[in-house]
């Protein structure tokens, strides 16, 4: 189960990073039998700045390519399967050229990039794979010219900015180190934002997996602080807006907008299309203090992706909104506050979606007594 979570992350990750450069076709079928290429890429609009931003991965994406990422070390059987897919796709190119009565140039044929965390010397020697250090960096092994195939041994790649986007697909300490380096990039980097969103999805899926291994638990803990970084970045943007506008509201508005965007994307990735109840809570929950907001995200990430999990997510959102409102009213001891929150959550979630949205909009202006009265009226 865990391997499939990582496999899906790798496919989504490559597809998102490569899509600005061309057409990405994940799980592309091949004709010889029911098999799929993990990521099939066709370049179209090669923006040089973006290619350079992706480093070695960008260089790989300058030609049509098949990407086959592996979570576990590639075996000989894995290699044969990948090579067979490449040969099938190449045969399709040649058949199309014959139909069009054109010449199929060798340079136009796709390349195969096999991404594996490690590879034994036995396998590399058995495949006669060798580095090309004149044109590529250490850790990339090429087969014969006409096989158009390279094996990227991720854990052998030098720890430089040009390899960052590949090292995120490694495992263990290599992957964790790459994630830390990712978090240190400029918050304005579009690739950083894409990678973080996918890492949040990976963290969420791993946290929900009952078969979590030690390595996965460590990875979850590595990704978790990135939530807080995103919130701090949003707050910083708010401070800048506040300075420019000369008022404190810019700070709060920037932080709330950032938290709302994070929450909406997180819930959508975690639970699918958002219903009216989830949508109604987006705005009030975004006003939570940063620490409480981060804790809420971590709690949500641990829920199962099923109806009970969705119901528990709604309760968590409701509890946090009600607790925040009662905290701001003051003069309520903790025991009384907890009792009131528990009593109100079910009543709040029992409201029709339109009434819920209206009540949440008016919540900042309601006293505790008015809130209780509104919910009591709805029970009648």
Overview of this structure, please?
The protein is α/β, with parallel strands linked by helices. It is built from 17 helices and 7 strands. The chain has a 7-stranded mixed beta sheet, with helices on both faces. α10 packs antiparallel against α13. The longest helix is centred in the first third of the chain and has 24 residues. The protein is elongated, with a radius of gyration of 25 Å. The protein starts with a helix and ends with a helix.
Task: Give a short summary of the structure.
This protein is α/β, with parallel strands linked by helices and 380 residues long.
Features:
380 residues, alpha/beta, 7 strands, 7-stranded mixed β-sheet
What is the CA-CA span between the terminal residues?
A: 48 Å
Helix content: 55-70%
Envelope shape: elongated
| Proportion in β-strands | 5-15%
Q: How do the strands and helices of this protein lay out in sequence?
A:
Blueprint: H1 2-18, E1 22-30, E2 35-43, H2 48-53, H3 56-60, E3 65-69, H4 76-99, E4 111-116, H5 121-126, E5 130-131, E6 140-142, E7 149-153, H6 164-167, H7 172-183, H8 190-208, H9 214-223, H10 225-245, H11 249-271, H12 276-285, H13 290-301, H14 307-329, H15 334-349, H16 353-362, H17 368-379
Parallel strand pairs: 3-4, 4-7
Antiparallel strand pairs: 1-2, 2-3, 5-6, 6-7
């Amino acid at each position: 189960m865990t391997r499939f979570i990582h496999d899906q992350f790798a496919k989504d990750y490559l597809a998102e990073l490569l899509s600005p450069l061309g057409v990405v076709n994940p799980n592309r079928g091949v004709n010889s039998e029911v098999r799929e290429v993990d990521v099939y890429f066709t370049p179209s609009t090669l923006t040089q700045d973006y290619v350079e931003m992706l480093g070695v991965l960008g260089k790989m994406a300058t030609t049509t390519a098949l990407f086959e990422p592996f979570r576990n070390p590639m075996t000989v059987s894995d290699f044969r399967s990948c090579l067979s897919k490449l040969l099938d796709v190449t045969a399709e190119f040649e058949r199309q050229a014959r139909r069009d009565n054109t010449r199929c140039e060798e340079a136009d044929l796709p390349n195969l990039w096999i991404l594996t965390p490690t590879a034994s010397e036995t396998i590399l020697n058995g495949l006669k794979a060798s580095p090309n250090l004149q044109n590529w960096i250490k850790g990339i092994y090429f087969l014969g010219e006409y096989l158009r195939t390279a094996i990227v041994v991720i854990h052998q790649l030098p720890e430089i900015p040009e390899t960052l986007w590949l090292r995120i697909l490694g495992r263990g300490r290599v992957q964790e180190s790459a994630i830390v380096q990712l978090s240190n990039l400029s918050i304005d980097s579009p690739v950083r934002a894409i990678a973080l969103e996918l890492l949040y999805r990976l963290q969420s899926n791993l946290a929900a997996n009952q078969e979590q291994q030690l390595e996965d638990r460590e990875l979850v803990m590595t990704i978790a602080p990135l939530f807080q970084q995103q919130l701090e970045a949003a707050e910083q943007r708010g401070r800048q807006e506040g300075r420019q506008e000369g008022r404190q509201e810019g700070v709060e508005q920037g932080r709330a907008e950032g938290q709302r965007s994070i929450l909406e994307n997180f819930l959508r990735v975690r639970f699918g299309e958002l219903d009216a109840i989830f949508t109604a809570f987006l705005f009030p929950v975004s006003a939570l203090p940063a620490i409480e907001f981060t804790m809420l995200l971590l709690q949500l990430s641990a829920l199962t992706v099923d109806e009970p999990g969705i119901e528990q997510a709604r309760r968590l959102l409701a509890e946090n909104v009600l607790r925040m409102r009662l905290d701001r009213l003051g003069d309520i001891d903790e025991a009384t506050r907890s009792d009131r929150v528990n009593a109100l959550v079910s009543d709040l979630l029992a409201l029709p979606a339109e009434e819920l949205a209206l009540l949440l909009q008016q919540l900042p202006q309601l006293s505790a007594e008015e809130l209780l009265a509104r919910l009591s009226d709805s029970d009648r």
